[in-house]
Design a protein that fits this description.
Shape: globular
CATH class: Alpha Beta
Number of domains: 1
Largest sheet: 8 strands, mixed
CATH topology: Rossmann fold
Order of helices and strands: HHEEEHEHHEHEHHEHEH
Strand order of the largest sheet: 1-2-4-3-5-6-7-8
Number of helices: 10
CATH superfamily: Alpha/Beta hydrolase fold, catalytic domain
Radius of gyration: 18 Å
Amino acid sequence: MPLHPQAEAYLKLFPTDLGTPVSSLTPEMIVQMRTMDGLAEQRGPKAPLPVVVDEVVEGVPVRIYRPVEGDRPLPAIVYFHGGGWVFGSVARNDALGRDLAVRNGTVVVSVDYRLAPEHPFPAAADDAWTVVEDVFARPAAYRADPERIAVLGDSAGGNMAAVAAWRARDAGLRLAHQVLVYPVIDVAMDTPSYRDYATGFGLGADEMAWFAQQYGGDPADPRLAPLRLADKAGLAPATVITAECDPLRDEGEAYAAQLAAAGVPVELMRYEGAVHGFFGLPGFFDQAVEAREYAAARLKEAFR
């Protein structure tokens, strides 16, 4: 499939993910770039909600969204933003957090995990697990239904969602579902999609290698590379969303195949002609809304 026309228009404005060669990035530039967001207007409207509160869970900041008043327990989604473990925040992804709460009719707990390189592997994975474990341990504090808890993440956040899912299984906690949106599932970077979409499609292979270098960790450690997890049986049912023109496409689809082979109910959806990052930018991509509706349908089915 050729690039989607909206992806072509996007790449003319943002030909690379970082907008600058990775070799030129200094620690000071990284900190400065975290405060900038040239795509803020394209992240979608910030839906008004009756409950939006910032809290701290065992040292991890979170923002909790609730689409209705009252104390009735709702299904819960623990959300992890993308950004290569280096960039992104709850504030930057506020519009998406609100949208997920409204679209799914759920409590959304958006996690402000620690960022690399100041906080290398496994800091982000550990923060993600701290929050998931707390939602299970204290559902009343979130006004959440403990039988209907899911995780959702995009890109590096998809990595954290996948890791949290297997840690939940190993802890005897039953997740209702995991939604992995163009997730980082491996760091070998040796797939055909890494070769085919190495440059010219937004997120570049060199940028992804730089992100992985900042985070660190053993490439064989399943806390970094869930594809390397030896036993995938009994993991939460999954939805895996990929973008056709994305270096990460093949590893996400390989993970979906591994889950299916292990007997895990899984559905894979590839968005043809799409590039990495589309899910978070409904102002640019009609496919963002389509993918969010698809994920919502899958979550609602799981919560039923």
